[in-house]
Amino acid sequence: MSDWIQARVVGRQCWAESLYSVQFEAAISDFAAGQYIKVALDIDGERVGRPYSLVNAPGEQPIEIFFNAVPEGPLTTRLAALNAGDTVWMTATASGIFTLESVQPSRDLWLLATGTGLGVYLSMLRSPEPWRLFERVVLVHGVRLGADLAYRETLEAIAQRYLGRLTCVAAVSREAWPPGLSGRITDLLTSGALERHVGLTIDPAHSHVMLCGNSAMIKDTKLILEERGLVRHRRQVPGQYSTEQYH
Ligand SMILES: Cc1cc2nc3c(=O)[nH]c(=O)nc-3n(C[C@H](O)[C@H](O)[C@H](O)COP(=O)(O)OP(=O)(O)OC[C@H]3O[C@@H](n4cnc5c(N)ncnc54)[C@H](O)[C@@H]3O)c2cc1C
Ligand SMILES: NC(=O)c1ccc[n+]([C@@H]2O[C@H](COP(=O)([O-])OP(=O)(O)OC[C@H]3O[C@@H](n4cnc5c(N)ncnc54)[C@H](OP(=O)(O)O)[C@@H]3O)[C@@H](O)[C@H]2O)c1
Predict the structure, then answer these.
(1) Which of 37, 115, 118, 173 is most open to solvent, judged by the fewest CB atoms within 10 Å of its CB?
(2) Pocket residues for ligand 2 (CB within 6 Å)?
């Protein structure tokens, strides 16, 4: 049984066509950056709940989620229409193991996201863990169009706070977007263009890689990483890459 509590909408932002963030006031329990809660609405007499990564840092309010309205998606089409003062259901306890807990300290942390997969990394970058465990952090946001590059000002502010330690790269696949890179994350890894751009290489000795978002990207990137000798991270047997699949 889920521990549903009521959450009140206190803010909403539309970043691009079908791309939204919503902020809530809700008394959820402590969580670790990288975890998700479920958000639900009662639709035709049935509670329809879906998992969403938390964008806010642990201990910070409001609670925030970042999502795209999926055409025909029962929940997201309704979440996209929420306004301040509306209420939703939310699980009081966050779940998930896509966190930096038990990850071994190393030199470089690579955070690779497609689309709304960016959200989970905002929570991490706002928490102390990445800065305690790693010297350098590289965030790569893979999107179709430049207009989908949400939270750029937030990322710029974090980069200023950790000057010289955070590199943010936009990988835009369906239009030229200088000064970002053009193409899919996978192609930029295979060609070496991503690592040349950042000035660091991904290898098992120095890197931990996190993958979040589109399942096809995760599947293809895993193969590239495993060819380079990285192995999946497990709580009991630490490795060099971790994944969280949204769809
Ligand atoms: C652990 C976890 C965390 C998640 N966190 C987020 C998050 O932070 N932000 C977010 O946007 N989504 C996230 N998702 C996906 C989310 O739970 C929903 O599935 C999604 O928002 C669509 O909900 P829906 O009810 O409208 O449609 P669903 O009935 O859930 O899905 C309808 C169809 O859309 C596909 N789909 C689901 N999500 C997406 C997407 N993002 N883009 C394109 N197609 C999609 C599904 O594969 C399915 O074919 C997460 C999923 C998991 C498992
Ligand atoms: N973004 C939009 O403009 C837009 C607008 C309206 C609705 N939507 C809907 O929203 C949903 C999500 O769209 P999204 O653009 O956020 O997410 P997405 O389809 O997952 O695309 C995000 C990025 O991931 C890339 N990608 C896809 N498969 C990959 C793979 N196997 N390996 C590496 N990279 C891969 C895409 O490249 P490619 O471009 O090469 O696919 C794109 O750069 C879709 O259902 C879409 O129909 C999107």
Answers:
(1) 173
(2) 17-18, 68, 70, 114-115, 142-145, 148, 173-174, 184-186, 213-214, 216-217, 220
